[in-house]
TrEMBL record:
Keywords: Calcium. One of its GO terms (molecular function) is calcium ion binding. The keyword Calcium applies. The keyword Calcium applies. Residues 42-52 have a biased composition (Basic and acidic residues). It holds the Pfam family EF-hand_7. It comes from the Eukaryota. Residues 104-139, 146-176 form the EF-hand domain. Residues 37-69 are annotated as: Disordered. InterPro entries: EF-hand-dom_pair (IPR011992), EF_Hand_1_Ca_BS (IPR018247), EF_hand_dom (IPR002048). This is EF-hand domain-containing protein.
């Protein structure tokens, strides 16, 4: 299956689940829970580190910046879960290797994410996801694949994703590109 040609038939016939199983994700719900838990642990670790060792380049008040810690936590979880085409761990990186997986790029991704958060509630909708993926260099994903991934990651079916969910979606997409090719360069 060419990811660029993922169409309405594949959206409706469960092809995404079969494709995810082939990259070692048999239970998307478990993958997402593990991703979210890892991001939360990394956020707490980053928050603790920032309290213990203040960074002179980052303004801190009250011992840490929750947004910066959350960005770092989500990025670290992405690095853990987005490894090649195997199981739910690996060396990570994926398309972030193409744009340099630095903390500054995670901040840029978060700033872009916030641009799509039209009402300021910390979430983006399915309508925004294809544009977002194009902006971060994953525009080769078909609109149907973007919609299928959004629906898969939106486990509570509220029609929106937070930043951690978006990073999990990106990790899933990275695994699919690793298996099925067509990875944007």
């Amino acid at each position: 299956m060419d990811l660029n040609n993922f169409g309405s038939q594949q959206l409706n016939d469960g092809s995404l689940n079969q494709m995810l199983e082939q990259v070692g994700i048999n239970d998307v719900g478990s993958f997402l829970n593990q991703f979210r838990n890892q991001a939360q642990r990394e956020t707490q670790r980053s928050h603790q580190t920032s309290r213990d060792e203040p960074d002179d380049d980052q303004p801190r008040s009250g011992g840490g910046n929750n947004s910066l810690d959350m960005i770092q936590g989500a990025m670290n979880a992405y690095n853990t879960f987005s490894g090649g085409s195997g199981g739910s761990s690996g060396s990570g990186g994926g398309f972030f290797n193409n744009i340099s997986s630095t903390y500054q790029n995670a901040q840029k991704m978060y700033a872009l994410y916030k641009q799509f958060d039209r009402n300021g509630d910390g979430k983006i909708t399915a309508d925004d996801i294809q544009i977002y993926l194009q902006e971060v260099g994953l525009g080769a994903a078909s609109p149907y694949l973007a919609k299928a991934l959004f629906q898969t990651v939106d486990q509570n079916h509220n029609g929106s994703l937070d930043f951690t969910d978006l990073m999990a979606l990106t990790a899933l997409l990275n695994k699919l590109y690793g298996q099925y090719g067509g990875f944007p360069r």
